[in-house]
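I am still learning, so would you mind making up any protein sequence you like and the C-alpha cells describing how it folds?
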Amino acid sequence: MAISLEELQLAARNHGMPLEALRYPITPVGLHYLLIHYDIPVVDAEAWRLRVHGLVDRTLEVSLDELRARPATEVVVTMECAGNGRARLEPHVVSQPWLAEAVGTARWKGVELRSLLDEAGVRAAAVDVVFTGLDRGIECGGEQCFQRSLSLADARGAGAILAYEVNGQPLPPQHGYPLRLLVPGWYGMTNVKWLAEIEVAAEPFAGFQQAQGYRLRREEGDDGEPLSRMLPRALMAPPGIPEFLSRRRAVVPGRTKLNGRAWSGLGSVERVEVSFDAGATWSEAEIESDTVLLGPWAWRGWAATWDAAPGEYELCCRATDAAGNRQPLEPEWNVGGYANNAVQRVPVAVVDPRAETAVHSARS
C-alpha cells in the first residue's frame, strides 16, 4: 500500500485519538479525533447568527448569546468518523487514511434541536431538515458548503443538540466554533460544524455530502445506502510499550491487564470478547457496570486479564450490541472505505527483560 502526497496532506491536517487515550473516560479535547473537510472558517461570534428557515411558520435569526440564554442540555457522546479503518481495506481506497483512531468521547453542551424547530413552527409538509456549515470547498467539480440532512423524525427524535461547548469550554475553532450540530449515535459526518443555517424542506436533500459522498457503495455505479449510525466496535488500549516506528508492542511475561472501550450507535454494548490467538478462540471481558456509565450515547469500558507467556501474539477484541450486531473478523470492502468495523488486531511480543539483558551482555 502506498500513501499518496495528497493523502499525506489530509493526514497532516486531520488527526486521530492516540489509542492509549482510551484510558480516559472523557477524551481531552486536544486528543479527540478531528476531521476537517475544507478550511477552518474564522467566525466573528458577535456578527454570527443561526438562521432557521424553510417550511416553518417563523423564520428565526438567533445569536450565540440568545442560544446560551435558552435552557441547556448536556450529553456525553462517543463520535467516530465513518472512514475509521479505511486504511486497512484492500484494495486501497484513496482518502483520509484512518487506521482505528478516528474516535473520541466528549461532554457536549447546547440546546435541543427539537426545541428550536418547535419555536420556528414546522409545517405539515416538512420531510427533511438540512444543516449548512460555513466551511466551503470544491468536490465533484463544483464549489459547495458542507451540508448534511436528517429526516424530520430523526431531527426531532435522535437526541440531537446544537452544541456551543465541549468538555466545559467554548467550542475551539477546529471543532466548529461557535456552534455545531451533534447527533448521538451517528457517524461524525452528521455533526455539521460551524453551523450557519437550518432549512426545513419538503423533499429529501440531494446535496453532494448526502447523495454522493458518505454512501455505502459496494461497487462503482451503485447508488448505495446513506451512512447513518455507528456500527459496533471495541478498541484496546495498547499494552506494554511501543517500538518507535512500527508501534509493535512489547510486554513482559506474567498477568497483564488489558482494557479498552466499546460502543455502538445501534444499541448499547452488551458483550466484549478478547482473543490472544488472532481470533481463533475468544473469552469474555468484563464490562463496566451500569452504575458507572457516562450515558446511553457514550462508550463502555471493558477489562480482561491475560497470562502472557514469552512469544509472539496477535491480540483482538470485538463488541456485540443489544441488537445482536457483532464485529466481523475481516473487513468488507466498499468504494468509499466506510464503516470498516472489523476487529482490532494488536501485534505483541512477550519478552523476558532479563533474557534480553543477558543476550545484549553476551553480544557486547
